[in-house]
Amino acid sequence: MGNEATRSLALEFASQIAPPGAIDIRRFFGGSALVRNGAQFGFVMKGTLYLRVDATMRAEFEADGSEPFSYRAAGREVTVRRYYAVPAHVIDDPSLLRRCSERAFDATTRPARKRSKATLAVSLPG
Question: What mean pLDDT comes out for the span 24-37?
Fold first, then answer.
């Protein structure tokens, strides 16, 4: 899928999610990002819509058989578990797609939890 086709698909999703002009479509590597109020909450890559997920949404999407976004770089597979492919039944239901998109936007704008720093115990000889 070419850049123009990807952008058209992103514009189509944006029109289903929010009123005209509420979502910006920006170039994003080989795809198109969906951005609202400066926050990227999703993107279209190779014909697939990916949304930002929180732990609850990730579990729901995984239960529907969705997979996280992944790509190959420097000969290895990189998996981005913050973004998951939107299940087909969600895409087919405009109301559900809007709700999932709102949840994705909320997950993007919610302050990140601070991760505790693990301490490393080192045994020194002697």
Answer: 94
